[in-house]
Amino acid sequence: MHWPQPEGEHHGRTVMGVTGRDKVAFAREQRRQATPAETQLWLALRRQALGAKFRRQHPIGDCVLDFYCKEQRLAIEVDGAIHKGQAEYDEWRDKQLSECGIRTVRFTDTDVLEDLPKVLAAIKAALRHTG
């Protein structure tokens, strides 16, 4: 799946021009470079405490999703400071995912680091919402 990129500059974790095994290698590298917030959220999600299996740094199309629940077609994104300057790109990316039937829920690094229980409750609510 290849999506035409929006106009302007963006800095997301995209894998434009990368295919096959290189895409997997890119995702593995992103796992090794996880932010503290991504690491904290992964420690909570990987235990399947919310009753769902998540993948970390999962490539889909031209993107690498921070966390992805295949069964629920739910992407969880943890946005750091870089996202403040790329809101238009993030909206475009979420729209592309939505057109593929993937819902996206976004949290800031601060949300995760300062109120993880609230973040987990929001993810649990998103998992219950199947429409």
Give an overview in words:
42% of the residues lie in helices and 19% in strands. With 131 residues, it is an alpha+beta fold. It has a single domain, classed as Endonuclease, Chain A, CATH 3.40.960. It has a four-stranded mixed beta sheet with strand order 1-2-3-4, with helices on both faces. Residues 1-18 have low confidence and may be disordered.
Total number of β-strand segments? Answer: 4
Give me the strand/helix succession. Answer: HHEEEHEHH
Question: Radius of gyration, Cα only, in angstroms?
Answer: 14 Å
Low-confidence stretches: 1-18
> Could you tell me how far the N terminus lies from the C terminus, measured between alpha carbons in angstroms?
23 Å
Give the quaternary arrangement of the chains. single chain
How many domains, as an integer?
Answer: 1
Quote the CATH topology.
Answer: Endonuclease, Chain A
- The second-level CATH architecture is 3-Layer(aba) Sandwich
Sum up the structure in keywords.
single chain, 131 residues, alpha+beta, Endonuclease, Chain A, four-stranded mixed beta sheet, 19% strand
Short description:
By secondary structure, this protein is of the alpha+beta class. Helices cover 42% and strands 19% of the residues.
Topology overview:
Blueprint: H1 20-32, H2 36-45, E1 55-60, E2 63-69, E3 74-79, H3 87-99, E4 103-108, H4 109-114, H5 116-128
Parallel strand pairs: 3-4
Antiparallel strand pairs: 1-2, 2-3
